[in-house]
Amino acid sequence: MLEREERMALLLLAGVAAIILLSAITLEFIGKETFSSPFSPASQEGDLVILEGVVTRVRATAAGGHLILIVNTTTVFLPSPIAAEVDIGEGDRVRVTGIVQQYRGEREIVPRSGGDIMHIP
Description:
There is one protein chain. The longest helix has 27 residues, at 4-30. The chain has 2 domains: 1-30; 35-119, CATH 2.40.50.140. The chain is α+β, with helices and mostly antiparallel strands. It has a 5-stranded mixed barrel. It has helices spanning 4-30, 80-83, and strands at residues 37-38, 48-60, 67-71, 74-78, 93-103, 106-110, 117-119. The protein contains 2 helices and 7 strands.
């Protein structure tokens, strides 16, 4: 039989776990787009941004299975695990949510999962 303090600790742990679970479900339902800002020349490295536009170029990197997309005039880098999840071609209209990063002095958007790239009509 559990002592009074042990029962209280167990109830507190169960309550905290329930709050964390509800928070995770709520954040998943709300979506990343709620917390992102439109990509612009003022976007800083590390910002969570969203970009909508037409894919004008798709190319594979020389090694690693990564993809580089040009959406409007912005570079979007897809690491190989994400590139394997998506089917993107030139002319596709897409919405990309990702983190702004610098590569060789140029800013690019890097999605964190395949779900961060959506085809839009």
